[in-house]
Design goal:
The complex is a heterodimer of chains A (about 425) and B (about 220). With about 425 residues, chain A is mainly alpha-helical. Chain A is about 55% helix and about 0% strand. In chain A, α7 packs antiparallel against α8. The longest helix of chain A has 22 residues, at about 155-175. Chain B is built from 8 helices and 6 strands. Chain B has a 6-stranded mixed beta sheet, sandwiched between helices. In chain B, a hairpin with a 2-residue loop joins β2 and β3. The chains are: A mainly alpha (about 425), B alpha/beta (about 220). Chains A and B meet through α10, α16 and α20 of A and β2 of B.
């Protein structure tokens, strides 16, 4: 049971067996989430990624919505039903090269980080963006959950080393080349990435540092070359940044604004880049068709979003339709950049927690998150005409949002997901 | 359902698209024109974004509904959907990056494949303030524009140079083309102007005309 708590909230740290299991882990985040666990030396990052998991979305199904502070909660039957994911033995975790049949042994993975729990508790205070006191509670809770079982850490290190080496080799093979050895398409792609790197989170000055830009460029270009079906698509540059911040927070003190990449050795930077690369790869694994020609994955989800909104809030849906507003006109960017453009950068980590926890099930779950997000302004939208709506949706008033507002969105998304996802007929118009 | 507030008082509504390679300054041209703002920290446009502004052409109030599109090729399938019904286009390149000028030809084809043959096109060489970095000469661009029968102007969104002029000229020209077509075809339903793009709300505009000048032409 408690693993679900982790499933929906933890997702921290470094990708381990990510790539190898490309075809594995069907549905639910279980199999995936594990790969984002904490390695023993990343405990300082943990609070940043875990913060804000205070409203247990699923708990809302069986309980009235508590004020978002309770850490001792019960979970619904839904959660219990997923325990079958948790029974695989620990040993499968790391060295599973066969990809598909062994999936979802999340719990085992989770446990690996437990031994460091005590130290973690002492170190939570000092984190990157906006730590809240509630992180302490969460860490305690995880610590408690985790401390019951033993952990095998030795293999993780080896895998991590191997993945980092693989990244380094890819960079050497694809990025560190003279343009004369690149195809026209590759030159174009590199040029596009170079245009976008300076425009990545431009309001946080840290990202303007030359070294950061270089790292971004290497990660993005390497990713693009290794994912030729899509290549680099604008917006993916945004998606890598939460990983970068989290991984760097392990080595750099103070707030992001005060960080300097020059404080890090090139080896360290390379490791961080590799970790970001694999995390980005993992995040986008189930969403390749969001970025291929004509972006069919996004179009499909935009359509689903429209259907879902119609089911949940017919008056708004009707109003939007009457005004001639198409969902693609605003929701395209949401899916393309996973909402990173719509909310403050300081609360993005909370959103990333959920994304990573959902794993392969993420694309479908995005529909619920975005329906919930949109309908936050149900009343406002109904008062606006076409033009006002487009403008409003392009610049949503989320500047004052903190984790709590985001959690309300996520909680409602979980609730609607449980109500509708397994009853598609509800969504038929 | 839409109630007519002052913002809805206009004689003509023209849909205009902003296209061109990534990073040439389309979004800043738009924000300069519609809000008189410029940002060095702007993010890439994903899909399309939208803004409007109302100006006066002759004695008419013309409202421009401007769709700013993402420059990357991958977005072409999404953004080209927005070409439909456009009566004007600003095709932007960056005078400091020659490759963005080379691609103008492809953009033109893209436009002509997806829009009405009468679309008014303005070629815009942006970032003209970066004089020391110039890579595309005014002469080359002028020659190209003449050959392709488009209008042409060099602008700087940063210095607010010619931005107003570029949009105003485009809209005036659209207005002229539309009026001429309306005359040619006569008054029947099939005025040559694409349906739904050219909305005449008649006398509604008169009342708030003065107010409009105050708020929109700063």
């Amino acid at each position: 049971m408690s693993a679900i708590c982790l499933l929906h909230s933890s997702c921290v740290g470094v990708v381990v067996a990510a790539e190898r299991r490309k075809n594995g882990g069907k549905r639910r985040g279980a199999g995936k989430a594990r790969r984002f666990q904490i390695q023993s030396n990343t405990r300082e990052q943990r609070p940043g990624f875990l913060k804000g998991r205070s409203v247990p979305g699923k708990a809302l199904l069986t309980r009235s919505p508590d004020p978002p502070t309770s850490y001792h909660r019960s979970f619904s039957e839904n959660d219990a039903g997923r325990n079958d994911h948790l029974e695989n033995p620990l040993e499968e975790e790391v060295e599973d090269h066969s990809s598909s049949q062994k999936h979802d042994n999340t719990y085992a993975g989770k446990l690996r980080s437990s031994s460091s729990g005590k130290m973690m508790v002492q170190q939570v205070q000092n984190v990157n963006i906006g730590v809240r006191s509630s992180d302490y509670g969460r860490v305690m809770k995880f610590n408690k959950v985790l401390s019951d079982t033993t952990v095998i850490l030795d293999r993780r290190e080896a895998v991590l080393r191997r993945k980092r080496l693989e990244y380094l080799e890819s960079v050497g093979q694809f990025y560190d080349l003279p343009d004369s050895e690149r195809s026209d398409d590759e030159i174009n792609m590199l040029r596009q990435i170079a245009v976008d790197c300076p425009r990545t989170v431009p309001d946080v000055s840290f990202f303007q540092q030359a070294q950061v830009q270089k790292s971004l460029e290497r990660i993005l270009y390497t990713w693009a070359i290794r994912h030729p079906a899509s290549g680099y698509v604008q917006g993916i540059n945004d998606l890598v940044t939460p990983f970068l911040v989290i991984f760097l927070s392990e080595y750099l003190e103070g707030g992001v604004e005060s960080w300097s990449m020059s404080d890090l050795s090139s080896e360290r930077i390379s490791d961080v880049e590799a970790d970001c690369y694999w995390c980005l790869t993992k995040l986008l694994d189930g969403m390749q068709d969001h970025y291929t020609f004509a972006q069919p994955g996004i179009q499909r989800l935009v359509f689903k979003l429209k259907e879902l909104v119609r089911r949940i809030d017919e008056p708004v849906a009707r109003h939007m339709e009457e005004q001639g507003l198409e969902f693609l006109q605003f929701a395209f960017r949401w899916y393309n950049c996973l909402l990173i453009r719509e909310i403050l950068y300081s609360i993005i980590n909370r959103l990333w927690d959920t994304y990573l926890a959902e794993g392969d099930a993420l694309p479908d779950f995005l529909v619920y998150i975005y329906a919930s997000f949109l309908l936050t302004w149900s009343d406002e939208l109904k008062k606006l005409d076409f033009q006002e709506m487009v403008m409003f949706l392009q610049h949503l008033p989320t500047q004052t949002w903190a984790d709590q507002e985001l959690e309300m969105v996520l909680s409602r998304a979980y609730m609607w997901h449980s109500m509708f996802n397994n009853s598609p007929n509800h969504l038929a118009s | 359902m839409a109630t007519y507030t002052a913002d809805d008082d206009y004689d003509f509504l023209y849909k205009v698209v902003l296209i061109g390679d990534s990073g040439v300054g389309k979004s800043n041209l738009l924000s300069r024109f519609t809000r008189n703002e410029f940002s060095l920290e702007s993010k890439s446009t994903i899909g399309v974004e939208f803004a409007t502004r109302t100006i006066h052409v002759d004695d008419k109030i013309v409202k421009a509904q401007i769709w700013d599109t993402a420059g990357q090729e991958r977005y072409r399938a999404i953004t080209s959907a927005y070409y439909r019904g456009a009566v004007g286009a600003l095709l932007v390149y960056d005078v400091t990056r020659h490759v963005t000028f080379e691609n103008v030809e492809r953009w033109l084809k893209e436009l002509r494949d997806h829009t009405d043959a009468n679309i008014v096109i303005m070629l815009v060489g942006n970032k003209a303030d970066l004089r020391h970095l110039r890579a595309v000469s005014t002469e080359d661009a002028t020659a190209f524009a003449e050959r392709e029968k488009t209008f042409f102007m060099e602008t700087s969104a940063l210095e607010a140079l010619n931005v107003e002029d570029a949009f105003t000229q485009l809209l005036s020209q659209i207005y002229r083309v539309a009026s001429k077509k309306a005359l040619d075809v006569g008054d029947d339903d099939r005025s040559g102007v694409p349906k739904g793009q050219n909305v005449n709300v008649g006398s509604k505009g008169d009342v708030s005309e003065v107010k409009k000048i105050g708020c929109c032409s700063s």
